[in-house]
């Protein structure tokens, strides 16, 4: 008869005496190797830490937490900690990081969102502050890493806030890249098999796409942290230039938005760079800045789109693509004010805008969790996490993101606090 397994995939908690007897002949290093192979679920290490003082000492050591976070810190099961943004004013201007569970005054709500991870994200030590790089521009967030571009656009920074790591890298070399060009970038894990990544989980790649506005020619570069070198991967002409919205990774393909009417697609394996036209039926003046790449329910590496106009959400799936043409299927239409609790909500007064400014949209898709296909939807009542397949939702923030065009979700298991992990304490 097999051993019992808990709902999170962890072994059930054993009596402390029996566990200590079984581990008596094992060194702390061997125990650490065993615990490193636990499923990446927040409850697993907590259960281990409650077995005995020895187990707790092993799994709360800085060395172990660094290794476990290297392996699993950006895993799909990691919880949402909060959002990075490029908004430089308001109560979170000092860090440009907004933890989950914050209301319009900057304090945490009295709910389950008021957790240790939210408290640690707001701690005076500034674990998630950008520090000396506060003027840098956040352009990507994935796998526990944050990617930033310098104000001069001549350097990039790969920041791992939970581990205290930062690596500065130069922008792609001239003459291929110019700071005056439109550009965007993404950080992804290093290439290689499972064993290689286990041995060197700290390695990463940066994919940088630069668009020449005059020629409409886009060029993709790949930086490998193992070799400390850039490689020119591909170049092609497109109908427009890349914009500043975050990338989305679907399968082995990175996607960005073009400024108008298209997507940029870069395959991490083949290094193919190409343009995909968006569905014409989902594009008008309102949709111009409210179109977002999503992960369709069908999966299989297929790209999807969410288009929002007023309170109407359209979800599209790319069915067929050839160079210069694409076919999209409309798979769902959702009335968001009927789905979300907006009709009877007490909404704050709208901000005063210049007469020449466009009115703020009623609903805005600010970010996507590509692992869970969860869209973070801004409304005047707050920010909601909406699972785009089931349409289940919950509120993650009050209306503190007013004026922000988009944000970068940050997920991690660990928030160091007092020398140990907040999720274990």
Would you tell me the structural class of the helices and strands? mainly beta
Radius of gyration: 22 Å
Strand order of the largest sheet: 3-4-5-6
Helix content: 10-25%
| CA-based shape | globular
Task: Give the strand content.
Answer: 25-35%
Total count of strands: 25
Q: How many helical elements?
A: 8
Distance between the termini: 34 Å
> Can you summarize the main beta sheet?
4 strands, antiparallel
The oligomerization state is single chain
- Detail the poorly predicted runs: 1-9, 105-125, 193-197, 416-425
Feature tags:
mainly beta; F-box domain-containing protein; F-box_dom; globular; 425 residues; 35% strand
Quick structural summary:
InterPro entries: AT5G49610-like_b-prop (IPR056594), F-box-like_dom_sf (IPR036047), F-box_dom (IPR001810). The chain has about 425 residues and is mostly beta strands. It has helices spanning about 15-25, 30-35, 40-50, 55-60, 60-70, 115-120, 195-200, 335-340; strands at about 80-85, 95-100, 135-140, 145-150, 155-160, 165-170, 180-190, 205-210, 215-225, 230-235, 250, 255, 260-265, 275, 290-295, 305-310, 310-320, 325-335, 365-370, 375-380, 380-385, 395, 410, 415, 420.
Overview of the molecule:
The chain is mainly β and 425 residues long. Among the domains are: 16-59, no CATH class; 280-405, no CATH class. 14% of the residues lie in helices and 35% in strands. The strands form 7 sheets. Strands 3-4-5-6 form a 4-stranded antiparallel β-sheet, with no helix packed on it. The protein has a 4-stranded antiparallel β-sheet with strand order 7-8-9-10, with no helix packed on it. Mean pLDDT is 78; it is low at 1-9, 105-125, 193-197 and 416-425.
